[in-house]
Amino acid sequence: MLKRLVNLGFALVFIAIGIFFEYKFLCPWLIVNHPNAYWPTLIASSAILAAIGFLVAPIIVDAVKRAAEKSANRLSSMSFGDIMGCVIGLIAGLIIASLIGVAVARIKIVGPYLSIAIIIILGYIGFIVGSRKKDDIVQIFTAYRGERSEKREKDKSSGKITPKILDTSVIIDGRIADIYRSGFIEGDLIVAKFVLEELQHIADSGDMLKRNRGRGGLDILNMMQKDFADKIVITDKDYSDIIEVDAKLLRLTQDLKGVIVTNDFNLNKIAQLQGVKVLNINELSNAVKPVVLPGEEMIIQVIKEGKESKQGVAYLDDGTMIVIENGKNYVGKFIHVVVTSILQTAAGRMVFARPKYAKNGNVIEGSKEDVSF
């Protein structure tokens, strides 16, 4: 069925072509010289052309199929770079041919045919040139892509630094000022108006300890505004539908696509659950503390009794607590201890130790000048 339709299609095409040329060239001559032969000639020529179309159709179809299969096999064996070179060359040739063809098409009679011939010839030439110069074409696009990638990296590296949103606890803590001054944190420091209101509320508290903490936080913030005037940004953005200050801070951080700076353990965990990036001052402090290993010896001063029976408590210069087994009787004294274990928590590091004994069974004592940490 399909074969018959193809043959019929070719017959109709041949008839259409024949009628076109007859109407253009033969018919005017017949009408003038042999008007009676006009219709018989037209019918006979149409029948002949239809027969030729039926006969030629299988040959043309087979030739097209072979050419298509050969082209497909050749394309499948070509690399992507080869195909891109040929396609780009073909497009370039067709563009040039279309520009020339516009001018050539204006020539009477032969203009349209010349235009078609030019499109075919220049398209073929572009295809051949593209296939031969494929390496140069691919290199041009690779270099362009490399420049784009380099530009993106440059834009990324020179882009704005992520803003840091400060919470109430980190302002009261005060260490943020020294950390920022040292350059470990960069970019704008965002302080929300609702955080300032919470600080003011703490500073006005009836509890003396809270009041002092709140006022200390306000003093730290005033000092930072003087030292880093162009980096401290006070934002009026608020969320009336949210009551909790921590929840507002998380929403603000998400909206600004920033990082929240805190030393609040609970806020840290909630932020991580919500996918908000956190800079925890306590984690930074723990990271820069001196490394203490089990079995290491040191000389420390026992400050007070521990919670458990016979325990003593000491502190390193960085605030790390040392729990000393059987150290209760040495409160106020400097003694040699041996580290037994270390407990690392999100809140900090805790060191467990025991006194070091001499051969006579007594604890080896030291002095303030001997303190090793």
List the helices and strands and how they pair.
Elements: H1 2-33, H2 38-77, H3 80-104, H4 111-132, H5 134-157, E1 164-166, H6 168-173, H7 175-182, E2 189-192, H8 193-203, H9 208-227, E3 232-235, H10 245-256, E4 259-262, H11 265-273, E5 278-280, H12 281-287, E6 297-301, E7 304-305, E8 312-315, E9 321-324, E10 334-345, E11 348-355
Parallel strand pairs: 1-2, 1-4, 2-3, 4-5, 9-11
Antiparallel strand pairs: 6-10, 7-8, 8-9, 10-11
For the structure shown, list the relevant keywords.
single chain; 373 residues; alpha/beta; Rossmann fold; OB fold (Dihydrolipoamide Acetyltransferase, E2P); six-stranded mixed β-sheet; five-stranded parallel β-sheet; 12 helices; 58% helix; elongated
Verbal overview:
- The protein contains 12 helices and 11 strands.
- By secondary structure, the chain is of the alpha/beta class.
- It has 3 domains: 2-136, no CATH class; 164-286, Rossmann fold; 292-370, OB fold (Dihydrolipoamide Acetyltransferase, E2P).
- The strands form 2 sheets. A 6-stranded mixed beta sheet has the order 6-10-11-9-8-7.
- The protein is elongated, with a radius of gyration of 44 Å.
- The model is unreliable at 154-158 (pLDDT under 50).
What is the percent of helical residues?
55-70%
- The end-to-end distance, rounded to whole angstroms, is 98 Å
**Gyration radius over CA:** 44 Å
List the secondary-structure elements in sequence, H or E: HHHHHEHHEHHEHEHEHEEEEEE
How would you state the average pLDDT, rounded?
Answer: 77
The total number of structural domains is 3
Total strands: the figure is 11
Largest sheet: 6 strands, mixed
Strand content: 5-15%
Strand order, largest beta sheet: 6-10-11-9-8-7
Net shape: elongated
Runs in which pLDDT lies below 50 for 5 or more consecutive residues are: 154-158
Structural class: alpha/beta
Count of helix runs = 12
